[in-house]
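Review box. Two proteins, two foldings.
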Amino acid sequence: MTPTDLTSGHYAILTAMLAPALLMAATGSLLVSANARLARVVDRLRALIEEWKHDAPDMSWRDRQIARHRRRAALVLRACQMLYAGLGSFVGTSLALAVDAFAGFRLGLVPTALAILGVGFLLGASVILGVEVSLSVRSFDEELDQEMAGRTR
């Protein structure tokens, strides 16, 4: 094997490892966003609980809001878990590609399977976050309706 062949082989391996690295960056961005969402949901839940403690006149509305925000928190938590699993899969893909190159390409479909698993986790988390956004908008609409009904009295 000539030095040129060796160099081009290293570049091919590094190039193959770039795709998982880009997916790791995308997953990291989604994780930051999901964690911020979770923090906002928790803050809103705390505020609703404080209002609930002070015997607010519209208890049934507060109970519905608390239930909806608990569901939102559970969804965001599930999405975060999936994103962490996806991140781990992409790291595993990158490592499997490197190990596969050093082992003489004996791992077969392991790197590809890890990448597909990671993309599946990313897709699942995205769908869950989409559902959570819908709940968020529905909750906000209900809060606006409640506020507007209070002003017209």
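Next protein.
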Amino acid sequence: MHSTDRLPVRSTPQNQPIKRHNTARYYAHRVRESLTTRVSKTLCIIFLSLLLVAGIILFVLYLSLRPHRPRIFIHEFSIPALAQPNGFENAEIIFNVTARNSNQHVGIYFDSVEGSVYYKNQQVGATPLADTFFQEPKTTTILHATLSGATLTVNSRRWMEFMHDRGQGKVGFRLEIKSTIRFQVSTWD
């Protein structure tokens, strides 16, 4: 009676109802929980987005208003007395430097600028270059000085060292510019 080409069919006498694993209260709780979760996630996203935007704005402001140091350039440095055999009596050092404020919106206050000249790490002379002054953004200020007489502390032995080094073709001097600087952020109009 049974043929091998047919599959056995199992039939149940009654249709069984679908089993319910969870109650209606469980599903209501899940819907309520997901609603509060969605609201809290939305609030967190809004807060973190505002925090990110504020951080980007502060970073851009920092980059645009960050002060840069003034750039100092030597344009002329000469000791004319080195060319004369008896130059020790009328020795003088002449130099011109420029201070460049490359900031876009930041001015610089210079407090009593002083220039010092060194030879072999020994100070040869010092002089005040300028009193307190304010430098506007994107400007260049020229500072000129001459060291001679009381501002130049060179003795005859040191002058002979200058002449000896000049005979060898190279005399090494170091010029230091010292000042206390303060920055002022200008306002937008």
